[in-house]
Specification:
about 250 residues; alpha+beta; 6 helices; about 35% helix
């Protein structure tokens, strides 16, 4: 009976995200039992949803959760961006896997939404376990298993994290332009008329102001074929040191 009540309590937590999101990929339930209290069982649940539009966790939350909170907190899990709503955490994470199409040699990249939650009336121990789980949760196990050195795996994972942000930002920017009904004037204040990119001052000073919204900026925000770390401009030859990386004209 205790386990049944915990299950019902847990599904109350997740029913909001279940209301509108479709195509649930997988669902896992992890019971947490206490040796010192055999009458109590808490639960941690994980649901995985496809994210074909590559929405950020925040955008996905407000698009799919029924009666969403007016304000949710930002959270980072294994370097991926997410949002926290009470006992539920929503994370957008990228996946880099072998392409299922044998004719294509390049890997397949996609993002999913991971929803983690614990049941109502959970014990303080349960909350601590959940927080520790968030701190130690690791995505991209296939990448970790591919490289013998953890530093090598982290380099690849950092690229996946950045591309995940870029895909989410592309969706955000597309929505901004789709909902914009005014007229843009980029004849002045930009290096090339009618054009702007996030590495140029016009991205914030001109384009963002005309759109009336702050546009996202690339995670590295540099112009270069390869990412070269730097501390001062002299490290970059003809380029500039921007955000710890060399940016070339």
């Amino acid at each position: 009976m205790i386990v049944l009540l915990s299950l019902l309590s847990f599904f109350v937590v997740l029913q909001k995200s279940e209301a509108q999101a479709e195509n649930l990929l997988k669902e896992y339930l992890f019971p947490v039992e206490y040796v010192d209290d055999l009458t109590k069982t808490d639960l941690i649940g994980l649901r995985i949803y496809p994210n074909p539009e590559n929405k950020s966790a925040r955008d996905w939350y407000f698009a799919n959760v029924k009666n969403p909170a007016t304000n949710v907190s930002n959270i980072t899990v294994d370097g991926y961006r997410g949002v926290l709503d009470g006992r539920s955490v929503y994370v957008q994470a990228g996946n880099l896997v072998a392409n299922p199409d044998p004719a294509k040699t390049f890997p397949d990249f996609y993002t999913n939404i991971y929803v983690l939650a614990y049941n109502q009336n959970a014990s303080p121990q349960m909350k601590e376990i959940f927080n520790q789980m968030l701190k130690n949760l690791k995505f991209n196990k296939n990448i970790v298993n591919t490289y013998c050195l953890s530093k090598q795996a982290e380099v690849v994972k950092d690229k996946i994290r950045r591309d995940t942000v870029r895909k989410a930002d592309f969706y955000t920017v597309s929505n901004i332009f789709s909902n914009f009904s005014g007229t843009l004037n980029l004849q002045a204040g930009t290096y090339v008329p009618k054009m702007s990119i996030s590495t140029w001052p016009s991205w914030k000073d001109t384009l963002s102001k005309q759109l009336g919204v702050e546009l996202p900026v690339d995670p590295l925000n540099i112009m270069a074929r390869t990412a070269i770390k730097c501390t001062v401009n002299d490290d970059c030859g003809q380029g500039q040191c921007s955000g710890g990386y060399c940016s070339q004209c």
